[in-house]
Design brief:
alpha+beta, five-stranded mixed sheet, 2 helices
Length: 116
């Protein structure tokens, strides 16, 4: 498994009965993105207790599935339509840990620093 170049939340809600073929069709036809890219695509069900992550790796798809026994994912509210919301890898970790991806209390990303 590799780290993603890009992570997309597929906004709205997805029928979790869909598997690799159905989810990749959503990515290509509805979002106009390439499911064979190095991106991870994250889907959530209406009850916000199940997530699927789809991504392509070398010669096949990976499909991760997570089901919460208690609680709900802090899935962003962007209406009922499917759209691709780009997030950072650390925001995906927040989401999987039960935090909102739009947390305002995070540390800012620093760049251009040097060590003396």
């Amino acid at each position: 498994m590799h780290s993603p170049n890009q992570v997309y939340l597929v906004t709205g809600f997805t029928d979790m009965r869909k598997s690799i073929n159905g989810l990749s069709i959503i990515v290509s036809d509805t979002l106009s993105l390439d499911p064979l890219s190095q991106a991870w695509f994250v889907f959530c069900n209406k009850h916000r207790d199940k997530l699927k992550i789809l991504f392509w790796d070398t010669n096949g798809f990976w499909l991760y599935y997570r089901r919460l026994e208690q609680g709900r994912f802090q899935w962003p509210k962007y209406g009922e339509t499917c759209a691709a919301m780009s997030i950072e890898q650390r925001q995906l970790q927040w989401l999987l840990s039960g935090l909102p991806v739009t947390s305002q209390t995070r540390h800012p990303t620093l760049s251009g620093l040097s060590v003396m």
